[in-house]
Amino acid sequence: MEENRSTFKLSGREKAGLIWHYLRPCWGHFAAALLCACLSMALNALTPQIIRITVDSILGSEEAKLPALVLRVLPLETLRQEPVTALWWAAGAVMVTALLRGLCSFGQRAQLSRGSEAYVKGLRDDLYRRIQYLPFAWHKQHPTGDIIQRCTSDVDVIRTFVCNQLVEVVRTVFLIILYLWIMFRMNVKLSLIALAFIPIVGLSSGVFYRKISSRFKTADEAEGEVTACAQENLTAVRVVRAFGREKYEEDKFQAKSERYAGLWIHLGKLLSVYWASGTLLTCLQVMVIILAGIHESVAGAMTLGAFVAFVSYNESLAWPVRSLGRVLSDMSKAGVSMDRVGYILRSPEEQEQPDDVPFPGGDIVFDHVTFGYEGQPVLKDVSFTIREGETFAVLGGTGSGKSTLVHLLDRLYDVPEGSGRITIGGVDLRHIRRSDLRRHIGLVLQEPFLFSQTIGENIRAVRPDAPEDAMRRAAAIACVDEAVTSFPEGYDTIVGERGVTLSGGQKQRVAIARMLMQQAPVMIFDDSLSAVDAETDEKIRTALRRSTGKATVLLISHRVTTLMQADRILVLDGGRVAELGTHAQLVEKPGIYRDIYHIQMQSADRALLEEGGSEHGGH
Ligand SMILES: Nc1ncnc2c1ncn2[C@@H]1O[C@H](COP(=O)(O)OP(=O)(O)OP(=O)(O)O)[C@@H](O)[C@H]1O
Predict the structure, then answer these.
(1) Domain ABC transporter: where (predicted)?
(2) Percent with pLDDT over 70 in the chain
């Protein structure tokens, strides 16, 4: 069964594999960060011991149970005589441990930030690389916004989980084990009471976060809606102004923004209740420990210093235990993000077969091709031949399948087995290496895309090292050289969001120049002269005829004047071949081509007459 992007799930093992795959190259940083975190914990555990020794063995008279090395350095007897000096020593020791903890904390953060950047870079680069090689059909099926969100927000959730939460879990587990070990050595009865509260606090926090995670998800989705609303508005700013929709857009945004704010206020309330009840529970535990501790101290089972130290350890346990519950429930959020990212990483790329052959050249033959999208037939038993070197035109109504012919020729989609075949030079297209095929087929689309670079860089996109005069020759053929040189920056003018806005016709012409630079033996113009006026269209076609030489040209257009000089013309009607022949043959016989020809010629004549009339009137 085909994987679905909403239901795709990685197993626990696969998720661990995904984490480890990107962690492996930078595991040293994570290990160093963990070491620093554990050292910091251990140093933290020293402070209550300093207090215990000060109270029991310096201010009091208990025997200090310390390692021989420490006893040799610590002038215990002298300190007992001078309590003020003793307090300075204690304060100094606390300061030193705090300083060392600061160093560890610095090391932990520095190592974590290096590790997490390396981790996330590896994952992000892999995602981007994979997206470059996923089939066109995959891109068509997946909304761009969804892909971007997977590559940004989801990657960020995984980064936070691996780089912060995972380290936090290890640190907390280490802390719990270390502190409980010390506490058990100090007093078993009190330790058992403290231990009894840990699962209650941890579990209640885990259950709470699991319960509200769906609300977090709703808030995330609401945030997505706010962003999408703003994005759509900014993209369609011209339409908004033209139709005076400013107020409507403002209200729409405000409604979404209000919902988003409301969700967070509600979440804030829930979190406040949780934190307040959690604090109450923790206080209850501390109270029980204090009462039991006093009882133990009065009974002589515990010294005063040990009691103070024990209470301090116990308090230090409360916060990490509460956060552990939250981290564990956040794991499910990270798990969802891993599924979403994993879906892209597991989607199959366009694969070249080992026995695929290079582009053979020759006649292009559509042999009984039937093709459709999502079960809806578009091309129905289409057969025709484009002879090598000829200019072949395709005319057809909207949705008749003209662009689909181009998709198939470029192998953006493959003709399914048993639904006919397309051959070039007798070789089935499905056995021609895609990369090679696309290098040999130049393509200009109706709505060409220009990169946010200079015009020169756009034209030289396929041959960045091509000489200046070759680029200008291509631009001249596409009738765009004059327009470009009239810009103050000429070919260095930046286009796209950061630069000038080219008109639709200028964009099409730059795209034609870019395609000409490819010097491909097959050139396809998919309605790519629709945005230029008839006169420029004629000029470009004349220049092209002279320059394309032996290239096979496939012209797709709604304009008969664009097509009539082609060697042969194919008329598509509802996905079927309706007519095929030269212009002269097609205007001779009744049919779609002749009708369209007459309609377009009449309106052209009318336009000419009107133009003449108005000029006449002007004199
Ligand atoms: N990727 C796709 N997924 C689903 N349906 C598609 C896809 N591309 C095209 N179609 C549908 O296939 C039909 C033919 O589309 P195609 O773009 O080939 O027509 P066309 O003749 O080039 O039309 P136009 O002249 O308007 O560009 C249309 O009904 C269109 O909605």
Answers:
(1) 364-599
(2) 94
